[in-house]
């Protein structure tokens, strides 16, 4: 799955035998129909509306988006928040995954930890973001505690800052990277690490030259998932920004929900999609490189 | 095909107007209204008396005004919603989208009792009727704000720095609020730059994009003063929170929740009867009691404790509300939202 995500050509069958394909078609019909109805069709609707201005085909909406420094600024904020979130999630999630897979020896304990990790996913994003609004508020638990133990003289502002948004996104996206890295770690053959140790490598060298490269495709898959989800997040930034920071998805939502300009809104959507895909493709190339090194 | 259907609809409408009687006790009527305490109030004040009088069941279709408009546009050819509540602003968009039918004064005799400001006409026909006003007034924490504020300029008081909230353009009141401030400050109508410059100096905790986010901010103490809807502010106060609502000397911007008869509904006669029920003094007084909506029906009297919570404040009336022309607001919506994004929604 991770290889398919990062587009590794070596693991994708080049040409399946025609009979196998024919047999697979009925199985594929349902997912293909679903994909067409709920992804391809809406996408075409958005794309075609973005290419219309004043009732005629035109690129004016894209000119309006791309020739304006403001949109580049918002795009930079959006990708900066997504990148910081991805970095924080990786720094927190990688050791956590390593701990769960390699250090926790009891199966029951590991299962318990994974359930704890996944539990928040069962609650709506909106509820969890509202929770952070209360925790991070001026009179919230975080500020009250920091002031109470004397670390701060007066409450710091989290809401309406990029830090606040990043905290909310890290909390929501952490499980994705832990699962992706954990899966990859669990499939690393321990004999390779033993061989490295036998040949005189220190534990760190073994990790850095054997374990880490072998897990890299899993890490890249997790990073891509987290980055795209963070770049396209609406609810968390909208609530935690207090309307004082704008990310691209908020601009899109505004056009569709209150301004009702589907043409401009469509152009904004396609712009965000294209830039995100470009970044994901770049990450995929790095992932390939890591895979080949092994 | 379409013209045939349109002709049938017209015939149905005319038939409905001529014989404004419930067609059959078994029919049900689908009415779009909002969620939460709004929907509860509409059910108790209008739907239940209507069902009691006619035997027609009311099926609620819950959604915000924008969502309702989207549904009406999708089902334009064969509507399943018969009557729809939508707020001012969205109401005009619905009319422009051609999903609202004409409300016939003959079929809705109570229309005559409604204040003329609340009867909305386009091309000589009534397309919407207001069922009650609500305003965006000064809301404050009565424990943290000792002297009740009397002016919108009080928000700039250094005491409240960092603890103020006002609506963002993502909220239905956001764009009209900017035009309202522009007007009370005497700035030229076609130039909002001074208003934006002044707003830029306001040290806010947040700009709220939903009424729920505003209530949350007042409740948690994140905001101790700012703007909020009369309905939401009094709801907090009724729950025992130290929240006050004031109508400042410059006045308040207000709008209303309006009823629409959906164009092409096969149950036009029943729909008209429903609207008529909503315009009775009893229904209007009931909505004032439950939501503190300012009655649009003339001559409705309410208890003094309710009266002070109405959107125009103590001793006011609909004439004290600043009701803007939504056509102007909708025309400038894109440009004002854009200016807001550039001036205020960034660091």
Automatic annotation (TrEMBL), chain A:
Tell me the ranges covered by the ABC transmembrane type-1 domain, including all copies. Answer: 75-283
Task: List the PROSITE patterns hit by this protein, alphabetically.
Answer: ABC_TM1 (PS50928)
Localisation per UniProt entry: Cell membrane
The residues forming the signal peptide are none
Q: Which residues form a coiled coil?
A: none
Q: Name the UniProt key words of this record, in alphabetical order.
A: Cell membrane, Membrane, Transmembrane, Transmembrane helix, Transport
What is its membrane topology? Multi-pass membrane protein
Report any Pfam family annotated for this entry.
Answer: BPD_transp_1
* Transmembrane feature ranges: 32-54, 74-101, 108-126, 164-186, 206-231, 262-284
The protein here is known as: ABC transporter permease subunit
UniProtKB/TrEMBL annotation, chain B:
- Which UniProt keywords are given for this protein, alphabetically ordered? Signal
Task: State what protein this is by name.
Answer: Extracellular solute-binding protein
InterPro entries, alphabetized: SBP, Sperm_putr-bd
Q: Which Pfam families match?
A: SBP_bac_8
* Species this protein is from: Azospirillum melinis
- Signal peptide range equals 1-20
**In its keyword annotation, does this UniProt entry include Repressor?**
no
């Amino acid at each position: 799955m991770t290889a398919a995500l990062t587009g590794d050509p070596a693991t994708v069958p080049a040409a399946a035998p025609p009979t196998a394909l024919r047999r697979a078609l009925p199985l594929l019909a349902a997912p293909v129909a679903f994909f067409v109805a709920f992804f391809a069709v809406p996408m075409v609707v958005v794309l075609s509306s973005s290419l219309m201005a004043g009732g005629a085909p035109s690129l004016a909406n894209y000119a309006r988006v791309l020739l304006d420094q403001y949109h580049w600024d918002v795009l930079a904020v959006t990708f900066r928040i997504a990148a910081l979130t991805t970095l924080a999630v990786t720094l927190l999630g990688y050791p956590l995954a390593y701990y769960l897979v390699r250090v926790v020896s009891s199966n029951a304990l590991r299962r318990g930890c994974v359930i704890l990790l996944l539990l928040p996913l069962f609650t709506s994003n909106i509820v969890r973001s509202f929770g952070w609004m209360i925790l991070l508020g001026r009179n919230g638990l975080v500020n009250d505690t920091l002031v109470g133990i004397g670390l701060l003289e007066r409450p710091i502002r989290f809401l309406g800052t990029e830090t606040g948004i990043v905290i909310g996104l890290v909390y929501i996206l952490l499980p994705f990277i832990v699962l992706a890295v954990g899966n990859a770690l669990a499939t690393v053959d321990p004999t390779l690490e033993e061989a490295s140790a036998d040949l005189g490598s220190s534990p760190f060298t073994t990790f850095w030259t054997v374990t880490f490269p072998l897990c890299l495709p899993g890490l890249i898959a997790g990073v891509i998932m987290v980055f795209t989800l963070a770049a396209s997040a609406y609810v968390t930034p909208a609530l935690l920004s207090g309307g004082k920071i704008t990310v691209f998805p908020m601009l899109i939502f505004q056009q569709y929900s209150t301004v009702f300009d589907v043409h401009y809104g469509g152009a904004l959507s396609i712009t965000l999609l294209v830039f995100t895909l470009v970044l994901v493709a770049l990450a995929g190339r790095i992932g390939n490189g890591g895979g080949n090194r092994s | 095909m379409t013209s045939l259907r349109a002709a049938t609809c017209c015939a149905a409408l005319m038939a409905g107007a001529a014989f404004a009687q419930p067609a059959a006790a078994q029919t049900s009527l689908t009415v779009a209204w909002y969620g939460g305490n709004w929907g509860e109030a509409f059910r108790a004040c209008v739907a239940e008396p209507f069902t009691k009088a006619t035997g027609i069941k009311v099926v609620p279709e819950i959604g915000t005004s924008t969502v309702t408009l989207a549904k009406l546009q999708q089902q334009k050819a064969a509507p399943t919603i018969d009557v729809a509540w939508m707020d001012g602003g969205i109401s005009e968009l619905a009319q422009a989208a051609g999903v609202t039918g004409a409300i016939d004064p003959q079929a809705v005799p109570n229309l005559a009792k409604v204040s003329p400001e609340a009867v909305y006409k386009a091309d000589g026909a009534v397309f919407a009727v207001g069922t009650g006003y609500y305003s965006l007034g000064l809301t404050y924490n009565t424990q943290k704000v000792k002297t009740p504020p009397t002016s919108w300029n009080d928000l700039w008081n250094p005491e409240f720095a960092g603890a103020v909230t006002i609506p963002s353009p993502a909220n239905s009141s956001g764009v009209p609020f900017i035009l309202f401030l522009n007007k009370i400050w005497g700035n030229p109508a076609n130039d909002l730059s001074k208003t934006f410059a002044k707003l830029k100096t306001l040290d806010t905790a947040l700009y709220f994009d939903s009424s729920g986010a505003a209530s949350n901010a007042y409740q948690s103490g994140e905001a101790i003063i700012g703007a909020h809807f009369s309905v939401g502010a009094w709801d907090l106060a009724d729950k025992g929170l130290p929240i006050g609502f004031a109508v400042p000397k410059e006045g308040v911007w207000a709008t209303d929740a309006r009823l629409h008869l959906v164009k092409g509904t096969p149950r036009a006669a029943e729909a008209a009867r429903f609207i008529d029920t909503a315009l009775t003094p009893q229904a209007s007084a009931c909505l004032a009691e439950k939501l503190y909506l300012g009655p649009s029906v003339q001559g409705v009297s309410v208890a003094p404790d309710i009266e002070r919570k109405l959107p125009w404040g103590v001793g006011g009336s609909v004439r004290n509300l600043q009701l803007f022309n939504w056509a102007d607001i909708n025309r400038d919506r894109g440009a004002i939202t854009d200016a807001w994004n550039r001036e205020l929604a960034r660091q």
